[in-house]
Design a protein that fits this description.
With about 325 residues, the chain is α/β, with parallel strands linked by helices. The protein has helices at about 15-25, 55-65, 80-85, 85-105, 140-160, 185-195, 215-225, 245-255, 270-275, 285-290, 295-315; strands at about 5-10, 30-35, 45-50, 70, 110, 115, 160-165, 165, 170, 200, 210, 235-240, 240-245, 260-265. It folds into two domains: about 5-170 and about 210-240, NAD(P)-binding Rossmann-like Domain (Rossmann fold); about 170-210 and about 240-275 and about 295-315, UDP-galactose 4-epimerase, domain 1, CATH 3.90.25. It contains eleven helices and 14 strands. It has a six-stranded parallel beta sheet with strand order 3-2-1-4-5-7, sandwiched between helices. Bound molecules: nicotinamide-adenine-dinucleotide (NAD) and serine.
Amino acid sequence: MKNETILVTGANGQIGTVLTQALREHYGESRVIATDIRAPQHDDPNFQTLDVLDQKALMDIAKKRGLTQIYHLAAILSAKGEQNPKWAWEVNMSGLFNVLETAREHKLRVFSPSSIAVYGGQTPKVNTPQHAVLQPETVYGISKVAGEHWSKYYFQKYGVDVRSVRYPGIVGYQSLPGGGTTDYAVDIYHYAVKEEAYPCFLAPDTRLPMMYMDDAIRATLEIMQAPAEQIKVRTSYNLAGMSFTPAEITAAIRKQRPGFDIDYEPDFRQQIAESWPESIDDSAARTDWGWKPAFDLDAMTEQMLSHLETYYQEQVNV
Ligand code: NAD
Ligand code: SER
């Protein structure tokens, strides 16, 4: 295995927290530099504060540390983005440009995730195909569409090896989400374990594509480790795990926690959710680099409830 030196941006976010750990298990603790504008929860000697808007700082780290890869996770997600669109555009676009320019100069491989938020408008909602019309209705989605095309441009013009997947909503027990529309599917498990009724900000029949964190991390490692000739989509790959509604996740939880209760209080995020696909066709990822998800709703629910049970029990015992 080649000795990689990896930098993760947005490493203290929902996905970064887990991905950084997985990369360290794979490549070695000191070879993965975690960066973010937020301080880490626990002491981390391999953490460095880095604002992705600071191109010079990014270039300096790449040179000093001899980086070979960047996993670019720093971003403003859908719900937060709608509250401050210009800021979301600035972080998502200028951050990406700084990463792409650093990669061009230092010949780095880049992972830069996109999202189901690229879809909207006339996009077919069921089994949304890889090459569907992109009509995003949020600033987040607009920035992801533009980002996908800039990534492809850097690949074609400058040979920068940028790889990407359109993550569905990611559900994990290790970290909390940071301002998305799919966040309800994480929050709901915390309420269930704490035996509190969940005030759901989406309506009961709102179906969205989702994925368990373990699958998302494995997909990320797999696409980054695949031989370059297998990566045929240089915008971003559709990626699917499962699809469900708030009513269905509630029913899955009730199989294990029969007393669990939910109240529906849809807010502005309902409109965002309604613009997104219900399910995703990820056959291009399956064919090109062998993607296959492992978790369905029941398997994820069992894992989420049992890990969060342990977590809250430990909090009580501290
Ligand atoms: P998150 O909001 O949990 O984390 C983002 C991190 O970026 C935060 O820790 C934040 O402090 C950091 N950040 C914000 N501005 C920064 C800046 N200027 N410089 C450096 N760091 C900054 O997001 P996440 O859920 O971990 O998402 C990671 C990536 O995956 C994003 O590109 C997101 O669009 C994409 N994605 C996530 C999901 C999901 O369900 N979580 C779904 C689709 C796509
Ligand atoms: N989970 C993300 C969000 O809700 C989708 O990219 O914003």
